[in-house]
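User: Show me a protein chain along with its predicted structure.
Assistant: Here is one chain, sequence first, then structure tokens.
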Amino acid sequence: MGIQREGAPVVVIVGAGFGGLKAARALRQAPVRVVLVDRQNHHLFQPLLYQVASATLSPADIAAPIRHILRNQRNAEVVLAEVTSVDLEDRQVGLANGHALSYDFLILAAGSRSSYFGRDDWAKQAPGLKTLEDALDIRRRFLLAFECAEQEEDPEIRREWLTFVIVGGGATGVELAGTLKEMARLSFPREFRRIRTDRARVILVEAGSGILANFGLGLSENALQGLERIGVEVRIGQPITDLEARAVILGEERIPARTVIWAAGVSAVPLGASLNVPLDRQGRVLVQPDLSLPGQPEVFVIGDLAAFSHGPAGLLPGVAPVAVQQGDCAAANIQASLREMPRQVFRYRDKGSMATLGRGRAVARLGRFSLTGYPAWLAWLFVHLMLLVDFRSRVFVFFEWLWAYVTTQPRARLILGDRAQGLDMESSLKG
């Protein structure tokens, strides 16, 4: 039985990521009832997720409860549930708990998941980085690797523990590689007695012709040099051909490594496939210029779930700025429909891209201008602080970054959960 809502038109928004949350807030003055559905109770600032994985920030620093964010928006309510299906004919979304939500307008902003390009069996050994749970799992693996190496007598096995392979040379992979290497190089050396943490190998593997491909050749080369300067090994044009329990295979080369992190690609969540509409190769929904579904003007798809290719830039990437602007556009088009006014065509305004390379180093593309080094790093800090949703988070993150920069000692280095989760420590110590 559906959960019926009477009165003002109901706008159901699936997903409280950047696009979904922006759409909900953009409708705060509209004569509608907003129902925001997410399987998590928090909005996650994904661009800083790698800092939780690398023990620089705590989960609460980059996440805020959805109900708290929308507490003053009287026309909005939050439903904690997982959406499993969409009935376009009856205008209902089905929930995993057996209930359904009726809608007058629907915005699908369900996001994406890690893609292993047909090798899903690699997921257990090489976790992706999409959720807080993923970040905490990677943090546990990273920190436990040094603990295992400290207790290991066999030098070959010790080297395996101190080798970290990151697959994917996009912003996430680059930032994670730089941060992990600087942790091993600057934060750990005085804390371990039997191992040289500064000699830990961090290997970034990219199948394409360069890292940070969307930044342009100049910044890509600058980023490569910056990573190599701090000791990250970068492998360009070398796709992974296989993963073993204790090694990564690059063609004919076998790299012994106990910790592998996947940042190589994403695909849309399965919800898009349930709509029975055209999809692209990544499972994203092919949308109209106004972000609606073909033949379903009341249904909008935005963010990582949408394949938008109607502008001069071609197919838009699945990044936060795209999702935010699409959320604004979808909300504006709903209000235009309510006023019986023409809808607007979505036009993406590219404000640039940024990526950190470690302590005091970054690259940034801001329109026609490019920044590198310390100025780019300062710009990166400012922009990311301002984009955090919660003011408390901005304050806490600023002081965490300041402390880490001055002391080189990030404070979020607790190993949580079962120490054997993700690593079989005891069997490994036996060799």
